[in-house]
TrEMBL record:
It comes from Hibiscus sabdariffa (roselle). The keyword Secreted does not apply. It is found in: Membrane. Residues 40-424 form the Cation/H+ exchanger transmembrane domain. It is a multi-pass membrane protein. The chain crosses the membrane at residues 119-141, 147-166, 187-206, 264-294, 306-324, 339-364, 371-390, 396-421. Residues 624-778 form the Cation/H(+) antiporter C-terminal domain. This is Cation/H+ exchanger domain-containing protein. The lineage of its organism: Eukaryota, Viridiplantae, Streptophyta, Embryophyta, Tracheophyta. Residues 536-617 form the Cation/H(+) antiporter central domain. Its main location: membrane. Belongs to the monovalent cation:proton antiporter 2 (CPA2) transporter (TC 2.A.37) family. CHX (TC 2.A.37.4) subfamily. Keywords: Ion transport, Membrane, Potassium, Potassium transport, Transmembrane, Transmembrane helix, Transport.
Amino acid sequence: MPPAITNDIATPNITHYECLKYVVVNFSISEKFVALVAAYALSRTVHHLLRPLSQPYITSDIIIGLLLASLPHVRGSFPNQFNIAVENAVDFGMICYAFVLGLEMDPYEIFKSPTRHAIVAYAGMLSTFITACTVTPWLHYSKHTSVVSFTLSLSISLSGNGSHILTRLMTKLKVGKSDIGKLSIGAGVHSDMITMFSLAVGFVFFPMEEGLNVKDRIKTIKIGVALVSQTIVAAKISPVFMNWINNENPEGKPLKGSHLVLSMAYMAFICSWAPWFGYNSVLSAFMGGLFLPSEGRISKWTISKFNNSLSILFYPVFFFWVGLKLDISSFEAGSMGTWGRLFCLLVIITIGKVGGTLICGLTLGYNRPELVAVGLLLTAKGHFHVYLAVDALRQGAIDITTCTSIVIVIFLSVVHTPVVVKHIIERARKRVPIQRMALQWLDPSSKLRMLLCLQGPHNLDSAINLMEISRGRPEPGIFVHVADMIEFTEQIASVMAPGGVDNITITDRSITEMRDQITRAFQTYIDGKGGSGGAIKLSRVLALSTFNTMPQDLCVLAEDLMVSLILLPFHKRLNVDGTLDEGHPGFRYVNRKLLRNAPCSIGILVDRGFGFAGKISRSSESKVAVIFIGGKDDREALAFASRVAWHPGVKLTVIRFLVDKNSEHAPRRVNNRASVAEQEEEMKLDDECFAHFYESHVAGGEVAYMEKHLANSSETYTNLISFEGQYSLIIVGRGGRVNTVLTHGLNDWQQCPELGPVGDVLSGSSSASGTSILIIQLQNIKGQLDGLSEEFSIM
């Protein structure tokens, strides 16, 4: 009996122990998952906080990765077996990173005659390499390794840079198309490619271990032969295979799953030859990607998907792993030697890059301040350099203090780059000339250049009608630049190649289809009845930005194209019942910022059926009105209306609001900041402008004329409301009126101040009147210096 009792008691104890163990293990796994998710979430949060400083993602990733992994509770929840799992994931991620980095580069640029970009890159690399080889052996960074091999590896690493980080930063800040931007990006790509290629070759011939025996030398020969064979196959056989895949999967058709799997398997096979014989997997992936064809649908698809996955999933985890490997608590911060070696690394990078760039650039005829800026930009390092430092720690070549110092130097090399770029922009802005770009000051013998912006296909019909009535005289006509306003997202950013600044390729199908639809619609209209006589010339441009930077980018575009008028769609869209929806806050922000900073005149179209009234042509008759109360914006609206008056398919009516001073309802006094002299000067300009319009169009019977004698803003409001439904389009000035008797108080209850008091009243009705409103504002000279051409020249 006792044994039976003992067994009955023991079995539940064992079961409870196993359950408890199961719960503890699962809780431990959940802790690790939470830590990794926290690394991602905190990194994105810090990046958002650093956005005003234009810091790249690597900055926030390093900060969060090192700080989060240094917390004792977090570090304690990752024992060795889980560290190994994270380490394997990181190694695989770096293999993908190196492969895509190589795939984006063109190795055959080396064999061409060196461009100025390449010369500057070679000079910066050579000076940094010589400086590092001279100084680093005396500072004892390595331990128990070949001094020659370690010095060469460290010197080559310091000579390189993170080209993809530099490219995205220059693109984001809109200086990539300038001469200094092209030079920096071109030199960065050359530098990155040469240094990584040198490391890949040096890994074979300069191993870290000392005292190699015959067996090790035979292994080195095998690795070298395997690497050469892999490179030859990738360079000679791969183009044939990839071209066959691309021909079987033309653009516009879905990729065949079998061909996609076959392509991925082939790429993996190419990159795995040398590692079978002991070669480094990351460097093998880079060499395989470097000699694979970078053109073609499969290659572009691979670059797009890999970059997107790396930026979203891999980088935060990578720097969290770096934090786990470093253990900041072991950093010897109290030793002067630690800070001395760290400072020496910074000095080597800075003096080497800036000195080489400066000496070489001066011989090429570049300016000294800009050469210093280029040299500072080329000091920026990337993810691969961090990985090399941590890998050296794993191999026992350096200690934790040295590895941490190298990571800190890499962090400091990235942090300063936005400051340098902004300094370049400020220097360039000082050279921007102030120009008067408005319809009133347009030379009659010159084409009107207009930037017509669209949020999407829903703006197509109204934009085409607006372009049609703006054409003016058949000679000289109009030049319309149609711009797509597309929000710059992280997904789009991840597919940008280092060499793709001039020709950005967007692979998102919805965006490409939308752009193609808009292009076809405009081209069809130009080729048909709309473009008869060649009066309208068309070009397509792209405004690819975040909503925060889109206003500045459109200013840059407007200055670059030298347009006199920007036409924007209202942020609210037309509903099926004819009313307006709540609108998009991002596009409203863009409109309001542009009104303050545009380098030319600007118009906002509130579409309430203008696009659905049918295409306006010479044989149609569309009723359009322009309201003139007075002020600079009304004069600009009248200048636009003078172009509309030339269109045979438009019946234009000009309505002038005049003050009825004899009315008993006229206010005795209106608060006005303008002096009497200013009011008289403005009234004189109004009379001269209107008299010229009257003589040109009304006197000959081309334009109908109507006068409204009003006493106050209440009567103004009543008359404005009465126009609903009578016209398909009403053109008004936004504001700028010195005499405010007729508009005083209208802005007290404005829903959309960006439309001005008159525009807000006309567009604020909830009825489905079908009357669209075009609000025009004269160029604001104060805001012109905020814009800067993307292709500015400062070198």
